[in-house]
Every structure is written in C-alpha cells, then in structure tokens.
Design brief:
The complex is a heterodimer of chains A (321) and B (339). Chain A is of the alpha/beta class. Chain A has twelve helices and twelve strands. The longest helix of chain A has 14 residues, at 124-137. With 339 residues, chain B is an alpha/beta fold. Chain B folds into two domains: 40-67 and 82-226, P-loop containing nucleotide triphosphate hydrolases (Rossmann fold, 3-Layer(aba) Sandwich), CATH 3.40.50.300; 232-312, no CATH class. In chain B, 31% of the residues lie in helices and 22% in strands. Chain B contains twelve helices and twelve strands. Chain B has helices spanning 19-23, 56-63, 89-94, 103-106, 113-123, 128-141, 158-170, 188-205, 216-222, 240-245, 250-258, 293-297; strands at 5-15, 29-40, 45-49, 71-76, 79-81, 96-99, 176-180, 208-212, 225-230, 233-239, 302-306, 309-312. In chain B, helix 5 crosses helix 6 (128-141), helix 5 (113-123) packs parallel to helix 7 and helix 7 (158-170) runs parallel beside helix 8. The two termini of chain B are 35 Å apart. Classes of the chains: A alpha/beta (321), B alpha/beta (339). Chain B: GO terms for molecular function: ATP binding; ATP hydrolysis activity.
Chain lengths: 321, 339
C-alpha cells in the first residue's frame, strides 16, 4: 500500500517561557491512500500540533524533528515557497467552526472561487461553475442562490457543507477535518458525517478526522490513532481499536464514554489522576501513573510501539508480557 | 408531595425588527417560549434536551428571572412570580444557582476565584471575613484545594473552571441549580468527574437540577426525567428510562437515532424552522416523516401515553411493532397566548 502521508518519528517542540516544551514526541504513523484516519485524544494530547505540522502551519516558536512526507516529498526539506504551494492545492482543511471559517462579508461564490486560487488554468467563470456544481454535489439545493448569499444567511449545517465543498474543489491529497461536527446539533452532525463518507471518493488521498468523539470515529473512520500526552499509544483499524482496545489508556478512555455504557448509572467511570505536564515527563511509560495494569517495570522502561494483531500498541504488557 | 418548581404556560417573547421600525413604534416580537409547563421535585434532576434554538437556555434563564416573561407563572418553593417587576423575584433568585454555558466567559478574568465564588454572598450582604471562610468551604466541596481562592481564571484548566462555577452556583445554598451545558467541551474523563461531583452534591444536599444539554448520552445517565424541546415547546416529557425505551414523539426518535440508538427510525430532514415563521398546525410537520394533512393544519394536544409520559403529537409512536394506543388527551389544548 502507498502512504499519502508518512510521519516518521515526528516530534514537535515549542519554545516556552521556561524552556522548551516537547508537545509531541516520536510519532510514527502512515496514512494510506483512500482511507479515513481518526486522530483521537484529550485536550493537550498533541492532536492539533500534529495536524498543524502536517499542514506546515505551526507557529514560528515550534520546531519539528523527524520527517513528514506528503506523497513522496519531505515537507520540511522543501522551501517555504514550495510548501505554501502545497496548501490549498494538495492539502485542504475543514475547520471546527463553520461560523468563523468563512469570511462574513464576502459572498459564498466569491469565496469558493478564491479557494481555487491554486488552479491557475481555469478562468473565473469556470471556477464559479465548478463551485456551483460542487455545492450541488454536497447536497445543497439551489446552488445558484447560495453562491450569491453571505455566510450569515446560511444555517450552521449548510455552512459546514459549504466549507466541505470548498475543501473538495481542489481535489486534495490530504483533507484534514478538525472536529467538523463539534459545533453542530446531533441531527445535523449525522448529515455532515454521511456527507464526508459519501464524498470521500473526491479526495485523491486520505482524510484525517480530528475528534474526541468516539461515536463519530466509529461511524466514519477506517483507522484510529490514539494520542496521549503527546505520544501515540495505539493505532490500528477502527474495529480493533474500538472493540478490542489493547492499550490501558484506550480502554480507560472508551470506558468513560457515556454513550458506550449500556446500564444507566449515576456514577460514571473516570481516569483517575491527571495528564503529565510535557515539561515534567516520567522516565518510563507516559501513562504509568494512571494505569490500572501498571507493573514496576513500567516506571523505568519506555514502551515502544509494537505490532499486536492488526494494531500497534505502546505498552509493556503487550510487547513484553 | 408538592413540587419545588412549577412552571405554568410560560410564554417568553423577544423584541425583533429594526431599530428604525421600533422608533416608529412598530411592535414586532418573536415568541421564543410558547406555553411551557413543567414541574420539578426536590432532589430531582430534569434534563432539558433539544437542538440549538429550541429554547432550552431561554427557559433556564426565565426560571432564574433573567428573561422577562410575557405570560404564565413560575412558582419556586412556594413563591410565585408572574412578571418581571415582581417583588418576589429577589427572594426566588436566592433559591436558584446558575451554571452558565461557557465557564471561562462566566468568570470575570480580573477577579480572583474566591471573589467570583462569593459574589452572590456579597450581593446578599454577607461580610468579608465570612465570605472568605465560605469560599474555602465551597472550594473544598467541589474538590479544589484552598490555594485556588487566590488564583485568576486564566491560571486554571477548563475542568477546574467548571468546578469553580459549581462552587459559585452553590454559594447561596440554593434549592435549584440550573446547569446549562455543564459538560460541553470537556474531555470524557473530566466530564465523568464533573457529573460524579454534581451527583455527590445532590445526594448530600438534595438540591434539584435543571440539566440543559444536547448530549443525550449524558442525559440518560444523570437525569430522572427528560423534557424534549422543539421550537420553544416541550414536545415530550417522561421518566428518563421511558424516553429512551419508548420515545413517543417522532422528533424524540429522530434525536435518539442521531445519537446512534439502535433500531430502524424515520430519518429527519431539513433544518429547524425559524421562530419568526412558525409552521401552522404541528410545528414539527415540516421535518416529520409521518406528517399528515391533519398535522399541517391542527396543532396537536398533549397526550398521556404512559405514567408521567406526555407527548404533543397527533400520532404518538407506540413501542416498536405495535399499533398506536388510543389514549384521550390528558387535558384540552391550552389556550393560545396570542389574543
């Protein structure tokens, strides 16, 4: 299989006021062509940093170690100019908030034409025609009217459809959807999930879905990568990770999801303890302090990602039971 | 047993239209809540669910006296209010604690947490020394160490900010806490910790909760009863187990299926209509897969389809596979508030 995006031992370090902050450490992950990857983890797990690194959108205070290879090109050995050319051409995003992603004072049609700035061989009327056709494809009735409207005239669900249409107009190799349904109601959320599933053929590469909603992952993704405190702790096919989680953190996280608990209960499970600060990391396993199955060795030896069934898991109990 | 809170035929209208229009004396209003009635017992948790724009937050605000009512009445712990100027509001508000949607926006960034937590006490004339002591107690109650008293909101995490808003909501020892989306945006394990905290507080003090949420998975675990809102009306209310096992309203079914509940369910299409253009007849008919001509012309009355189980629908759904039971209306359609 060919990987569209290949992350090799990627670490991201921010320059903090009190010294460097290693927000992401040693993530190795391959995104296969034609698949949807769910990137899950709690706040502070490094999902946003990792996604920003894939888009080469990290702030200047951040430095990236390791390699991020997009369709054969090492993103961080390219010059800024070449990298910039990739964004909006081979990479596109759908952001969390459809209310701020679109410019409120520019008509939808104009914005969708601008989204195609990286397609130089088309004239403006052609781009507008493509925009209208794409709106129709994402299930928007009466695209001609919509093209002339402003974002505030559209509901949240429609705006997210417009944002998805915009991202698909350039047929990206990498589409990153960052919490695309968080701001939407449950009924609208389901429509947007179905839309992404229906439109996945338009992406000539892979889709990354950043989310903390396991229900969305289960309904949309092929693969999942679970991040904890800046490290990849488990990755694999959705069915394996969600139904047969091997890492204790994945198990604990899934156990906390009220939607997965069948019998109503007033006392909900939690993961005791807190996430370690990236500036005070433990010597051994990153999850050892909160782990239910911790061994003495876990505090000393850092587990490496190793194959377990179809998944990869960073846990000593899995790699050296 | 008398209810702690009783809301009867509550109507809330917001002024709308342009400034010029209003200056010319045109009165245009949009009806946000249209005849809402509910009861809540001491120590009970009522979940208020529905999509954005359904009026959940407005209902919570109206019960706390923060939004003027156009008609109807609210009775809390034996005190009744019917309008904004009511002298009873001040006494009633002491009985209600609020947890607002966005905790970071709800805390003054320039106030130390102790001052934020005890501001309701200051409003009620309690002295500085006593306030400081109570701040420590309240922080301990929500599981935060005493040194949080001197911190500012930017120095705490989102989960901790929620705990601070819980402490403030409890500061006057209210009998009712209105929690507006108390776990929105929290990580799963932090969400569990906060819900467990609310549950422990309720077990210790038998405070009642009005729990506003759009997360049905959470509502299923932490509420005793659920009221489903649509376009400013309660379209179904029942004990939590009944809502999930035997939803009677097509809208409730659609919401449940959107949350991944099993079972073949009618799909919901379209968007929630604008309040300015309320549909005729049953207000849900524009999106209802089962709508008939009757639904398009005649507003449905409230039907009792089980114990404490009320549905505002002409054709309440029976448990899967069975025909609809013919149950007469629980009470006649309440008079519309419009003249």
């Amino acid at each position: 299989m060919t990987a569209i995006v290949d992350l090799r031992d990627v670490s991201i370090t921010y320059a903090g006021a009190h010294g460097p902050v290693p927000a992401v450490r040693g993530v190795t992950l391959a995104l296969e062509r034609g698949r949807i990857l769910g990137l899950v983890g709690e706040s502070g797990s490094g999902k946003s940093s990792l996604v920003s690194a894939m888009l080469a959108l990290l702030p200047k205070s951040a430095s990236v170690q390791g390699r991020i290879v997009l369709d054969g090109r090492d993103l961080y050995s390219l010059g800024e100019h070449e990298r910039r050319a990739l964004r909006g051409r081979e990479m596109a995003t759908v952001s969390q908030d459809p209310f701020t992603a679109l410019n409120p004072v520019v008509r939808i049609g104009t914005q969708l034409v601008e989204f195609q700035h990286a397609l130089p061989n088309l004239t403006k009327p052609e781009k507008l025609r493509r925009a209208g056709a794409m709106l129709e494809r994402v299930g928007i009735a009466d695209p001609a009217t919509r093209l002339n409207q402003y974002p505030h005239q559209l509901s949240g669900g429609l705006r997210q459809r417009v944002a998805i249409a915009g991202a698909l107009l350039v047929s990206p190799k990498l589409l990153i959807a960052d919490e695309p349904t968080t701001a939407l109601d449950a009924t609208t959320e389901m429509e947007v999930i179905e839309l992404i599933r229906d439109m996945r053929g338009e992406v000539d590469g892979s889709i990354v879905l950043v989310t903390h909603d396991m229900g969305v992952v289960g309904r949309l993704c092929d693969d999942v990568a679970v991040l904890y405190a800046g490290e990849l702790v488990e990755s694999g096919p959705v069915d394996d990770v969600l139904n047969r989680p091997r890492h204790p953190y994945t198990r604990a996280l899934l156990a906390c999801d009220p939607a997965r608990i069948d019998t109503p209960s007033r006392h909900l499970p939690t993961v005791p303890g807190t996430v370690p600060s990236p500036t005070a990391l433990p010597a051994g396993c990153i999850f050892a302090a909160r782990c239910q199955d911790v061994m003495a060795l876990c505090h000393e030896v850092k587990p490496l990602l190793s194959a377990a069934g179809a998944s990869r898991v960073a846990c000593l109990r899995v790699s050296a039971p | 047993m008398t209810a702690l809170l009783e809301v009867n035929d509550l109507v809330v209208r917001y002024p709308t239209g342009s400034l010029f229009g209003r200056l010319r004396g045109e009165v245009r209003e949009v009806t946000v809540l249209d005849g809402v009635s509910l009861t809540l017992d001491q120590g009970e948790t009522l979940g208020l669910v529905g999509e954005s724009g359904s009026g959940k937050t407005t209902l919570g605000r109206a019960i706390g006296g923060m939004t003027p009512m156009a008609a109807g009445s609210i009775t809390l712990a034996g005190i009744s209010a019917t309008g904004r100027q009511d002298v009873f509001w001040r006494e009633m508000r002491r009985q209600v604690g609020f947890m607002f949607q966005d905790p970071m926006a709800a805390l003054d960034p320039r106030m130390r947490l102790a001052a934020s937590i005890t501001e309701p006490l200051a409003v009620n004339g309690i002295g500085r020394t006593e306030r400081r002591r109570r701040a420590g107690d309240l922080l301990a109650e929500v599981g935060l160490s005493p040194d949080f008293a001197e911190r500012f909101p930017h120095q705490i995490s989102g989960g901790q900010a929620r705990r601070v808003t819980v402490a403030r909501a409890l500061s006057l020892r209210p009998r009712l806490v209105i929690a507006d989306e108390p776990t929105a945006g929290l990580d799963l394990s932090v969400q569990g910790e906060l819900l467990n905290l609310l549950n422990a507080i309720q077990a210790a003090s038998s405070v009642s909760f009005l729990f506003i949420t759009h997360n049905l998975a959470v509502a299923r675990h932490v509420t005793d009863r659920v009221a489903v809102m649509y376009l400013g009306r309660i379209v179904e209310s029942a004990r939590t187990a009944d809502i999930f096992a035997r939803p009677g309203h097509p809208y409730t079914r659609a919401l449940l299926s959107a949350h991944g509940a099993p079972g073949a369910t009618p799909r919901l299409t379209g968007e929630i209509p604008s309040l300015k253009r309320r549909p005729q007849g049953c207000e849900f008919h524009t999106r209802c897969p089962l709508a008939t001509d009757r639904c398009r012309s005649e507003p449905p009355a409230e039907h009792l389809i089980g114990p404490q189980h009320q549905v505002r629908c002409h054709f309440p759904l029976a448990p899967a596979g069975k025909a609809s039971p013919q149950v007469p209306p629980a009470h006649p359609e309440p008079a519309r508030s419009q003249p």
